[in-house]
Write a structure and sequence with these properties.
The structure holds two protein chains of two kinds.
Chain A lengths: L1 E5 L2 E3 L20 E3 L2 H15 L4 E7 L4 H9 L5 E5 L9 H12 L6 E5 L10 H9 L3 E11 L2 E8 L2 E8 L2 E5 L11 H7 L4 E4 L18 E8 L7 E4 L5 H13 L4
Parallel strand pairs in A: 1-4, 1-6, 4-5, 5-11, 6-10, 7-10
Antiparallel strand pairs in A: 2-3, 7-8, 8-9
Helix pairs in contact in A: 2-5, 3-4
Chain B lengths: L3 E4 L2 E2 L2 E2 L1 H14 L3 E6 L3 H5 L9 E5 L3 H4 L3 H14 L3 E5 L2 H14 L2 E6 L1 E5 L2 E8 L4 E7 L5 E5 L15 E4 L11 E8 L13 E5 L8 H12 L2 E4 L1 H5 L20 E5 L5 H4 L7 E6 L12 E4 L2 H16 L1
Parallel strand pairs in B: 1-4, 1-6, 4-5, 5-12, 6-11, 7-11, 14-15, 14-16, 16-17, 17-18
Antiparallel strand pairs in B: 2-3, 8-9, 9-10
The chains are: A alpha/beta, B alpha/beta.
The structure holds flavin-adenine dinucleotide and adenosine monophosphate (AMP).
The site of adenosine monophosphate has 23 residues of chain A, from α1, β4, α3 and β6.
Chain lengths: 262, 324
Amino acid sequence: MRIICPVKRVPDTAAKKAVEPDLTLDRDGVEAVLNANDEWSIEEALRIKERTPGTEVVVLCVGPEQAQQTIRKALSYGLDGAIQVSDPGISGSDASGIASIVAGALADEEFDLVIMGNQSSDARTMLLPAMLAEYLDLPALTYCTKLDIDGDTVRAEREMPGGHQVVEAKLPAVVSVVEAINEPRYPSFKGIMAAKSKPVVVKDLQDVGLDAEMVGLEHAWTQVLEVTPRPPRQAGDKVEDDGSGTVGAKALADFLVARKFL
Amino acid sequence: MPDVLVLVDHDRGTPKKVSLQLLTAARERGGGAVAAALFGEGAASGAEKLGAYGVATAYVWDSPDAAAYATEPQVAALEAALEASAADVLLYPADPFLTDVIARAAVRLEAGVVTDAVDLTLEGDRLVATKAIFGGEMTSRCQVRGDRPQFLGVKANSFAAVESGGAPAEVVALDVTLDDTARRARVVDVVVTPSGGRPEMTEASVIVAGGRGLGDAEGFRLVEQLADALGAAVGASRAATDAGWYPHQHQIGQTGKTVAPQLYIGAGISGAIQHRAGMQTSQTIVAINKDAEAPIFAIADLAIVGDLYKILPPLIEEVAKRRA
Ligand SMILES: Cc1cc2nc3c(=O)[nH]c(=O)nc-3n(C[C@H](O)[C@H](O)[C@H](O)COP(=O)(O)OP(=O)(O)OC[C@H]3O[C@@H](n4cnc5c(N)ncnc54)[C@H](O)[C@@H]3O)c2cc1C
Ligand SMILES: Nc1ncnc2c1ncn2[C@@H]1O[C@H](COP(=O)(O)O)[C@@H](O)[C@H]1O
């Protein structure tokens, strides 16, 4: 079995962000990390690998040169290899652009499963898994909290409001996972060392069958017109309860009345 | 002025609140014709009444197949509805399952998608979306480029639902044929956990959220009681969902859901940046924490410093009394 884990390099949530004059995120000036949700997809792939002898897990990242760090981080969990798609023409692509690039990179790959995070912490579109599945013409099982592979069938529990549904599809398939699916391991020292020498295949747009007229900022199907910082919130009144609870409760209830919530 | 098709989320024909909000937005911000698309069992029964919200034509696909397989049957239906309505803009509620439908349809039709709009303004023939980005650190205005179909996801409670007093909608049954690929992800079971009649978190205008400060799963009964007294949904921090005190789908924050209710009340939540990334654009924020220095207080409109186990019981009583 061969599993692909697409991962994203994202700015650290705690880092102060700035935008470039072209309204894209200044990705050089900000500390970047492996998207947290992609740690669960990697963990899930590793668990399948551990259960299924002969399984290979390959990480796939669309991103600039610095994304090598992210790829090494992903490899350090014990993955087998990596594909990076890097090209100056990619900058500013939107979700459909990135999905087409990931799909292009997979066109010549053999795989049974693509496992991805359900959302990236910066863009948070949640679009990529289903868009990728559409480009690849595959079924998608998204927002999974449980995955079972049985022969050529994947069975998943998908989180939905107030419960879950169980869905089945034949492999190959695209799957996205949510946090509840597992508890990711930490990379071992051995894994971190081994990651340094794992093969990373770097491709450009031409290698994945796309030309610069199809992706990038100027060709994105959506367009950002303006980005403005949000004015910081002001702290309001602070009420100290006296230990009885009634002072705090009354202050809160009065506030709700004053603001017409009650 | 753009003609707008609204993907109406409904429960056996009863439109969800967010759908009525989107219909109002389509009417007030679009200015052209408003049409609706309803898929799944019961769709036909709810369609005509949407006229009250300005819908001229409702396109329905009332078939159990819509829910028998994941996503793809609805993509086929959406394609049919877009073609029949010839709409320029599609508005859809920012919901995960519907986002999948939109994502596939967008690739098929080469439509641009802007997610999570909280406001829409008409500029020329285009609806420009305002949305929070980077966990609410910044605001951006985005649009779909060129003359592509415009797919815009709108967050619940961004618009009020206002009736227009229109005539009953004309109901058009869509002719949807599914090929085998539409049936490749089969739903074999649906497990519903009783919600206690509480609203869905992403649709609620009031959310009461609990964190590690509750101490255990039992503590969430207090959060639920306050939520029920206020007609609110229940949210949770990652510390609480990780500990198994509350289901993950209620998690607010970077790796959970983004919410922006009119009122957020946090109890026993410190307000870590990853939590704030999911709630700091709430209109009004109230926090209860025994630590006067808790970071959540820096963004709270009202900070109550004290023990939540002392404060919540009289508060629940007080709220119930004032609502009675
Ligand atoms: C990659 C990543 C993603 C993350 N994603 C999320 C996310 O999506 N959502 C999220 O919430 N977190 C997320 N976190 C975790 C986040 O950093 C915090 O650890 C988490 O939010 C803490 O939850 P908490 O506020 O409930 O717990 P704590 O930070 O432990 O705070 C508990 C609070 O309760 C107060 N308290 C204790 N007892 C009482 C009492 N009796 N009465 C009143 N107050 C009391 C304490 O003073 C304290 O402030 C993420 C972290 C990482 C690294
Ligand atoms: N540049 C990228 N390269 C590879 N995978 C990506 C990239 N961006 C997003 N993804 C994948 O898509 C998922 C959902 O991201 P998003 O649609 O941006 O919310 C992530 O968890 C990743 O698995």
